[in-house]
Amino acid sequence: MKTATSTQRDYQYGFSEKGTAMYDVTGRERKAHTMVAVLQSHLGQDLQHLTLLNIGGSTGIIDGHLAQHFQSVTSIDIDQAAIQYAQTHFSTDNLQFALGDAMELGYDTSSFDVIICSQVYEHVPDASKMMQEIHRVLKPGGICYFAAGNRLMWNEPHYNLPLLSILPRFIADQYVKVMNKGDHYYEKHLTYWGLKQLTHRFTVHDYTARMLRSPQKFGIDYMVKPNTIKGKLAQFLSEHLLWLVPGYIWLLEK
């Protein structure tokens, strides 16, 4: 298996084996519920006539939920163990799983109505190439649900280390090693402005602020509880200092 370095990143294989998050049924189903709620808010309640591609679907828990709402769901990942798990545990006529490369999607141009790209961009060797492929396989007027972390975050969730994502790469590598979290820091997060550049081919519908205003409607009240200090701070940042929000939910329209 190839490994990545700070200067040249290769594929991040076996991600599902690095922890239990990809097998957390409650957590993954919550994410799927939010995806559906956001897409219904934008596209209307009936999604049953739409085709969907999930990039980086991993163990299939999210896809099992999405398949209840869409005409068809195709889920790809480079993680062979995760795909095998998905194929074993989720089986419906409108759901299929396959090994696939986010930077070289093996589908025809204008193939899908909706694409899910949730917390994936920081894991691929070339996020720009992935976004080119997403734009290519989306139908005209199609929507990509894009969930993305901000480099300017207090805590890096993959390693649970404060300020890791904002450090220069060579320092971040040493930080990860010293804290016994790995051999190097693989993920590459972008700032708000970097994410805007990454998605420049699309019309961006930013759902971040409206979700924080109505966390129950979008199923994120387990993370951001209404009328709490954390909830009010998050809402303030999303409305006045958007570049400091730790994560974003954007709908990218082709």
UniProtKB/TrEMBL annotation:
Transmembrane segments: none annotated. It holds the Pfam family Methyltransf_11. The keyword Glycosyltransferase does not apply. InterPro entries: Diverse_substrate_MTase, Methyltransf_11, SAM-dependent_MTases_sf. Coiled coil: none annotated. Residues 53-146 form the Methyltransferase type domain. GO terms for biological process: methylation. GO terms for molecular function: methyltransferase activity. It comes from the Bacteria. The keyword Nucleotidyltransferase does not apply. Keywords: Methyltransferase, Transferase. Belongs to the methyltransferase superfamily. This is Class I SAM-dependent methyltransferase. It comes from Thiothrix lacustris.
